[in-house]
């Protein structure tokens, strides 16, 4: 029987992903699952580390937790979008609230995901964000 | 400045001057718009799915939490925000009013979900003698009731003091505990008992290990010393929970929080924190979830009351929970009442008349405790106290009491009875005295019958393993088993009485329970299916259908709860659809009143944006191509991205269906051609008359009247997407599907409206359509003569099949509204449609 939820990653395999979260366990799980799928992934603990990575590596899509030590995810998102507007950001929020979801979207996030994470749902969002990031790149070239 | 002003005026007037673009630029613009369109469709799909989940939760009686409401409302709101952003990009910045409508509705939703909790300020301690009902916000429900009871003449309560909500709030804030607790619970699955046990323990330890603010600790000890001075002896206290935010009239919260007995000065701080922490016990959390309380609304206060040296203690119900009219119950046993409420002690039961002189009409004395330590005179006094409290509080009361060696009666607690045994439906029936009868006896905790496999629970590990719909069998009906009641089919315990906490909760959940059934854990075997007839105090082997059939639906414990009310309020702002007719002058962004209106508006306009692009920008690739086909109607196709074969020349004005590579369109097309249309039904003169009359009265029904894209039949396609607008005769239909490998991009939607016949015939056809669609797995909504049907996130092959069904139906249900008044014809069509669709799907025709 085909897996109802199985899908092919295409765009996600062509991009570089950055995961920004301060929970080591969560990062490890995501790292394992995503690299197994063939996605290139870097990790950062906080906003400062994420910005540093962006300076040195060609990141296309970021998955970022809202609650982090130092600058929170929403503030960090704004910094990222100011400097790297073509990068697409998926916000992770734990204590779901209408406010933080909307704040993220207003700050230019591509989408948001609720914790606890459904990894397949996250992967789908990564694929869609990757498609958009690739289109951004193409348009920027032209 | 002038330029800015001019662009402002243009925007206000809706005037947009299109830039001149090269062919490449046009292609890029079209691709970008299509990308926005796709994102909008995905967002639409996600928003509609979350709306449907919210509605279903309210309708089907399941248990849902504030986290569920918050997360689903966020999904709706965020996705509609995305739709608006994308539509504005597609519309070159138009639709500004959408954002205003969105913000207005979003703020209203916010206000309902995140009700501001009024900060409690005031004393940290209040002597119990000064407490009354008006202080409920400071002392919690139970202490407010107790203080009030103590103010009545002839009623004694133990000396003591209440530690207020201000004190507990200070403790939480000083230790910054709210974010830490949220962080622990934010990833919890409330239906997973193992996970709940682990996280609940983590939070309780966090609270217990946090220090009390120094001044609060000093004053708490000082209060204890004061109590010591007031009383002559070496006082010890009972630290009792008294939560704020509980509505004791609809939920007992019986035995869910911790009570620490015999607390001395050295252990006071620890005991206080342990009671505070018990707000987060698994049993309290699951109970609040099942009864629809918001954790954040509950603030724990604590009552520190001098321990009474009890010779006898018990519970009174001022109106008998056994349902015997005109009586009240006195349950009691020697020593403290703890064994009665947690069901570990055998209990004596007097039935006493409510009316003075309170004659004792029945004495059920437990064999082990035959020398009843309660005199008849004391029973009468207890009845007097019970009636006084009932009169004072205005409702039947559940009263906990103790009698000290001097014979003084102390009231320890008085709260409304949350549910009556009689109200739960006690009815005497027959006992089947045959080999099916396994056990007979005990007392009814909650009447009714339930059946399932036996599952004996002795430990937390057993609790984690407890399967849904099993019969919970325990030695003692301890409150810690409460989390299992929502999933059990029935409860059987070897000890306990109607007065126990677990029995109370079983009545609230309408769960049949049988207590004090000797040898239950020994005679019942794990895994064996039994039927428990709690009303008639019998347990049978196997399923006894005749007993189970008599069971009504169990009450929904969430009915009338704060969480349910929140969802109802939120749904009023989310789901009603007011914007149903795109041709109406009221179909405007500023008039959107709900989130559903916004999705409907955005979706409609986005399709039109894509539809108009070719014409608007003179872009051949985006222009409509006429489909070459032998069908009598005109079909036009617009390629949004990759819906045509690469070799197709976009300059062509005609296209063959073989040149279309849009998989959803091909599926619809197959459905349309699976069976030849047998032509219009033969119509009686009366049926035809009705059509002519409607045609003249409603010019909107005239197919010749142009209204946007409805004048012809259009397919808007890409490889994975198709939107078909059909104007067949007098009705309007729309099929939309996105079927890609991504789950969020997999759905089929169908809208249908109108017809030429009078309303009853139109509605008749819609109902026939609805029945067929529901049969083939669509979720259907009907409003008057308009139908909305949807199916999503299923396998691709399944969804292609559903598109064929829709293709078939839009061809074959044409004009059948004319014959809807004829039941025979109607039935004939119904059978024919179902038969042909089933054949089509099974043959993959």
Strand order of the largest sheet of chain A: 2-1-3-4-5
The level-1 CATH class of chain A: Alpha Beta
Count of folded domains of chain A: 1
As a percent range, the share of strand residues of chain A is 15-25%
Unreliable residue stretches of chain B: 685-710
CATH topology of chain A: Rossmann fold
Mean pLDDT of chain A: 86
What structural class do the secondary elements of chain B suggest? alpha+beta
CATH architecture call of chain A? 3-Layer(aba) Sandwich
Principal-axis shape of chain A = globular
Rg of chain A is 14 Å
Structure explained in plain terms:
With 142 residues, chain A is α/β, with parallel strands linked by helices. Chain A is 46% helix and 18% strand. Chain A has a five-stranded parallel β-sheet with strand order 2-1-3-4-5, sandwiched between helices. The radius of gyration of chain A is 14 Å and the shape is globular. Chain A starts with 15 loop residues before the first strand and ends with a helix. By secondary structure, chain B is an alpha+beta fold. Chain B folds into five domains: 2-114 and 572-607, no CATH class; 125-306, ATP-grasp fold, A domain (Dna Ligase, domain 1, 2-Layer Sandwich), CATH 3.30.1490.20; 312-416, D-amino Acid Aminotransferase, Chain A, domain 1, CATH 3.30.470; 437-543, Glucose Oxidase, domain 1; 623-843, no CATH class. In chain B, a hairpin with a 5-residue loop joins strand 10 and strand 11. In chain B, helix 3 (66-90) runs antiparallel to helix 4, helix 20 (663-673) crosses helix 23 (796-812) and helix 23 (796-812) packs antiparallel against helix 24. The longest helix of chain B has 37 residues, at 23-59. Chain A binds chain B through residues 2, 4-8, 67, 93-99, 101-102, 104-106, 111-112, 114-116, 120-121, 124-125, 127-128, 131-132, 135, 139, 142, and chain B through 24, 28, 31-32, 35, 39, 42, 67, 70-71, 73-75, 77-78, 81-82, 85, 106, 109-110, 113-114, 182-183, 186-187, 189, 740-744, 794-795.
């Amino acid at each position: 029987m085909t897996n109802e939820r199985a899908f092919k990653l295409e765009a996600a395999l062509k991009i570089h992903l950055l995961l920004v979260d301060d929970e080591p366990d969560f990062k490890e799980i995501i790292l394992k699952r995503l690299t197994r799928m063939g996605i290139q992934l870097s990790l950062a603990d906080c906003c400062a580390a994420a910005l540093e990575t962006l300076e040195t590596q060609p990141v296309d899509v970021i998955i970022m937790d809202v609650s982090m030590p130092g600058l929170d995810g929403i503030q960090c998102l704004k910094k990222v979008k100011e400097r790297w507007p073509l990068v697409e950001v998926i916000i992770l929020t734990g204590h779901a609230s209408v406010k933080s979801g909307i704040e993220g979207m207003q700050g230019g996030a591509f989408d948001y995901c609720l914790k606890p994470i459904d990894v397949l749902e996250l992967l789908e969002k990564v694929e869609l964000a990757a498609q958009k990031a690739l289109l951004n790149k193409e348009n920027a070239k032209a | 400045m002038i330029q800015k002003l001019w662009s402002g005026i243009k925007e206000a007037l809706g005037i947009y001057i299109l830039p001149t673009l090269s062919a490449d630029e046009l292609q890029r613009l079209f691709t970008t718009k299509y990308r926005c369109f796709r994102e909008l469709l995905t967002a639409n799909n996600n928003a509609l799915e979350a709306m449907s989940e919210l509605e279903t939760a309210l309708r089907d009686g399941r248990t849902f939490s504030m986290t569920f409401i918050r997360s689903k409302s966020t999904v709706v709101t965020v996705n509609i925000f995305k739709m608006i952003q994308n539509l504005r990009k597609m519309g070159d910045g138009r639709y500004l009013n959408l954002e205003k409508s969105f913000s207005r509705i979003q703020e209203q939703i916010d206000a309902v979900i995140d009700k501001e909790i009024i900060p409690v300020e005031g004393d940290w301690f209040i002597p119990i003698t000064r407490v009354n009902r008006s202080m409920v916000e400071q002392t919690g429900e139970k202490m407010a009731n107790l203080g009030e009871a103590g103010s009545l003449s002839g009623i004694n309560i133990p000396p003591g003091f209440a530690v207020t909500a201000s004190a507990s709030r200070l403790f939480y804030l000083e230790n910054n505990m709210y974010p830490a607790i949220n962080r622990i619970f934010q990833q919890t699955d409330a239906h997973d008992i193992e996970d709940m046990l682990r996280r609940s323990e983590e939070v309780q330890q966090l609270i217990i290990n946090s220090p009390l603010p120094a001044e609060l600790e000093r004053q708490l000890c000082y209060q204890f010393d004061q109590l010591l001075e007031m009383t002559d002896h070496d006082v010890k206290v009972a630290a009792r929970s008294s939560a704020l935010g509980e509505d004791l009239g609809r939920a007992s919260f019986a035995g869910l929080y911790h009570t620490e007995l015999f607390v001395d000065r050295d252990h006071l701080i620890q005991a206080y924190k342990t009671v505070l922490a018990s707000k987060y016990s698994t049993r309290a959390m699951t109970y609040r979830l099942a009864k629809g309380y918001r954790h954040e609304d509950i603030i724990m206060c604590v009552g520190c009351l001098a321990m009474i040296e009890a010779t006898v203690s018990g519970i009174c119900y001022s109106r008998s929970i056994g349902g015997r009219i005109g009586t009240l119950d006195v349950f009691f046993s020697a020593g403290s009442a703890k064994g009665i409420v947690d069901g570990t002690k055998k209990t004596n039961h007097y039935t006493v008349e409510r009316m003075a002189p309170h004659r004792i009409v029945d004495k059920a004395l437990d064999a082990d405790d035959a020398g009843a330590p309660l005199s008849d005179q004391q029973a009468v006094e207890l009845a007097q106290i019970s009636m006084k409290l009932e009169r004072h509080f205005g409702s039947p009361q559940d009263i906990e009491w103790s009698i000290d060696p001097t014979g003084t009666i102390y009231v320890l607690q008085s709260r409304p009875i949350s549910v009556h045994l009689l109200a739960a439906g006690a009815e005497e029936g027959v006992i089947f005295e045959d080999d099916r009868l396994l056990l007979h006896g005990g007392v009814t905790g909650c009447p009714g019958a339930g059946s399932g496999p036996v599952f004996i629970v002795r430990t937390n590990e057993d609790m984690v393993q407890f399967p849904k719909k099993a019969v919970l069998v325990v030695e003692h009906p301890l409150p810690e088993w409460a989390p299992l009641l929502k999933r059990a089919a029935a409860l059987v315990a070897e000890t306990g009485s109607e007065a126990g906490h677990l029995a109370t909760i079983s009545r609230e959940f309408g769960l049949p329970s049988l207590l004090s059934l000797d040898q239950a854990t020994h005679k019942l075997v794990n895994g064996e299916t039994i039927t428990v007839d709690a009303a008639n105090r019998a347990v049978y082997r196997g399923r006894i259908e005749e007993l189970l059939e008599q069971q009504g639906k169990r009450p929904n414990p969430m009915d009338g709860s704060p969480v349910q009310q929140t969802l109802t309020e939120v749904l009023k702002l989310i789901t009603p659809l007011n914007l149903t007719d795109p041709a109406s002058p009221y179909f405007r962004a500023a008039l959107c009143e709900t989130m559903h209106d916004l999705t409907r508006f955005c979706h409609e306009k986005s399709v039109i944006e894509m539809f108009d692009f070719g014409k608007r920008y003179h872009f051949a690739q985006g222009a409509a191509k006429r489909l070459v086909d032998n069908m009598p109607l005109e079909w036009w196709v617009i390629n949004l991205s990759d819906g045509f074969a690469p070799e197709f020349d976009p300059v062509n004005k005609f296209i063959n269906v073989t040149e279309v590579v849009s998989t959803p369109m091909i599926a619809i097309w197959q459905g349309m051609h699976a069976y030849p249309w047998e032509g219009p039904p033969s119509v009686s003169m009366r049926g035809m008359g009705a059509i002519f009359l409607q045609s003249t009265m409603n010019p909107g029904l005239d197919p010749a009247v142009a209204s946007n894209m409805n004048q012809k039949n259009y397919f808007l396609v890409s490889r994975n997407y198709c939107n078909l607008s059909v104007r067949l005769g007098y009705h309007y239909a729309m099929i939309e599907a996105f079927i890609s490998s991504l789950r969020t991009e997999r759905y089929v939607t169908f809208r249908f409206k109108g017809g030429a016949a009078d309303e009853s015939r139109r509605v008749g056809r819609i109902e026939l359509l609805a029945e067929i669609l529901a049969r083939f797995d669509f979720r259907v909504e009907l409003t008057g003569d308009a139908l909305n049907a949807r199916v999503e996130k299923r396998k691709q092959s399944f969804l292609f099949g559903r598109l064929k069904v829709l293709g078939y139906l839009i061809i074959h249900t044409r004009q059948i509204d004319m014959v809807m008044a004829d039941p025979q014809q109607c039935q004939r069509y119904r059978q024919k449609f179902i038969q042909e669709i089933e054949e089509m799907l099974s043959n993959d025709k």
